[in-house]
Amino acid sequence: MVTRFGHFRRSPPPSIGGLDKLGLGVLLYAYAVLLGAAYLFAFWRTIGFDIFPYLSLQDYISAPFNRVIVLIAMPLLFALVVFGRKDTSNVGASRDIFVYLLAMYVVAFVHQQYEAISRYLQHGFHFENERNVLLIAAALFLASLVLSYHIYRSSSKFHLQVFAFILVQTAVSMSAGYSDGKAIYHGAANVYFLDNKELCETGGTRDWVYLGKFAEHAFFMNTIDKRLCVSGEKNFKLVSRKFKEGL
Questions:
Q1: How confident is residue 79, by pLDDT bands cut at 50, 70 and 90?
Q2: Residues 93-117 pLDDT 10s
Q3: CA distances, 222 to each of 27, 85, 150, 206 (Å)
Q4: DSSP labels for 138-199?
Q5: Which backbone phi and psi does 10 adopt, to 5 degrees?
Q6: Which pairing describes strands 192-194 and 217-222: parallel, antiparallel, or unpaired?
Q7: Is the N end or the C end of the chain the one with fewer CB atoms within 10 Å?
Q8: Residue 200 and residue 105: Cα distance in Å, rounded?
Q9: Beta strands per DSSP E along the chain
Q10: Measured in Å, how far apart are the chain's first and last C-alpha atoms?
Q11: Strand pairing partners for 217?
Q12: Phi/psi of residue 203, nearest 5 degrees
């Protein structure tokens, strides 16, 4: 555009806000996949089965979504309530929020890891390398504490705080996955049985516990001998164990 002085007015650079939002969305999606993968790895390790070849990309998020979102989001919601009106532009306020959130995740991890270890010790049979899940979760948690101590003692950058949260949240997801998987493997009350047993075993009398549906396959586990059933049937009926057994 030409001004009345005869000079060309420089057009403003094209907005890159859309690209920034796209990049942030991709990062958040990848992070959700990471947490989902950590949960699923720990869950299926207690059953002794490699579930990953059966997973689609969406399964990493949708399968453990309800469990993981509660563990990860609740401390963030409490932080919004506590610090919602506080000026977070200064370093001190930012550090206060970081310490608060870390403390909440520490409590969450200790609770989940305690349940996981308790269920590990209650039963004598364990699959190969099953204990490594607990060790990896503990290592991630300790690494987050070491990094957090460094952050607290120095004026570290925001990306280090984010990395510390990634470590501790992954540790929480793994502990929760192991605890849930171990509970189901040994007869949790809040499970669902396959109503049509013929789908997995002709003439069978034992119940089949529903483990989940991934891509085109549904997974069930026999309650007595722990055999797995992988079915491509899309239409099947489930019944709550609490309802069936009057628990």
A1: low
A2: 667 778 888 888 999 999 999 999 9
A3: 39, 53, 48, 7
A4: HHHHHHHHHHHHHHHHTT--HHHHHHHHHHHHHHHHHHHHHHHHHHHHTT-SS-EEES-GGG
A5: -70, 125
A6: unpaired
A7: N
A8: 40
A9: 192-194, 208-214, 217-222, 228-231, 238-240
A10: 77
A11: 214
A12: 75, 10
In this structure, of 50-59, 96-105, 126-135, 136-145, the range with the lowest mean pLDDT score is 96-105
Q: DSSP class of residue 16? A: -
Residue 38 carries which side chain, given as an amino acid letter? Answer: A
Asked if residues 36 and 66 have their Cβ atoms less than 8 Å apart, the reply is: no
DSSP 8: B
Q: Which two tokens stand for residue 56?
A: 């689609």
Alpha carbon distances (Å) from 41 to 4, 90, 165, 239: 68, 39, 20, 26
pTM of the model: 0.84
